[in-house]
Prior knowledge:
This is DUF4839 domain-containing protein. InterPro entries: DUF4839. Keywords: Signal. It comes from Hungatella hathewayi. About 30% of the residues lie in helices and about 30% in strands. The protein is α/β, with parallel strands linked by helices. It folds into 2 domains: about 1-110, Trypsin Inhibitor V, Chain A (2-Layer Sandwich); about 130-264, CATH 2.40.50. The strands form 3 sheets. It has a 5-stranded mixed barrel. A hairpin with a 4-residue loop joins strand 10 (about 235-250) and strand 11. About 20% of the residues are buried.
Amino acid sequence: MKKIVMFMIAAFMTFLLIACSDSQTHDGEAKTPSASGAQKGRDYQSVVEDFEERGFTNISLVALDDLITGWLTKDGEVENVSVDGDENYSADKWYSNDVEVIITYHTFSEESDLEEDEESKESISEKAEDKAVESILTIETCADLEKLLSTEGEINDFYSTFAEQYKGSTIVFDGCITYITNHGDYDTRYDILMSGGNYVDDEIVNPGPIFKFEDVNTYGMGIEDLYLPDYISVGSNVHVTAEVEYFSENEGVFYLNPVKVESR
Length: 264
């Protein structure tokens, strides 16, 4: 009987030790996703998202400008990942969340891009070039876009009409950024609101709908840096190239898919 009691006490103490160990917090720490070997060959943006989800805050990118054709190795394919200098890190290992994570990936060299651009230009007929230009809508070439940007009110039937008629089309306009926030818990994905025209102040509402980029990163906006440049900020006037998605009457928001955002 005494042995049974002692065994039960020992088991209970072991349970308490395990429970205490599991309940320890890891404030200021982040746990690695899949081991380093599992990252090779993945798209680097997906790897960035994985590390962000785990809480890592100091992520750097290194581009290997070594691609020529992209047949065997895809553009953006990861070569290796290091965490705090370790290229052979293990999965589910705790680190300080601000240790440097370096993601090295393959891409085309600028020289290769230039050569491909020249070949493409030679092979494209004048008719195809004219068609490409026509597919990009500006206020000079599309009266409906000019009307969209000059219509008063956050909600208007014309916004839905325009979105349905030109869904998937690329539009170009001068606008301004009115609001930015991180998308969910991501450090490098954002929700951005914009209006047409120049920024005045936070009390003035410009004509046209409220445009929104949802869950976008810098690469989706044609920006090479991992983090937002200074001109992507509230109050900045920007030149926007984006694809038409849809207008949400419930939210009063016109959704766009970014192609490129430039300072102006």
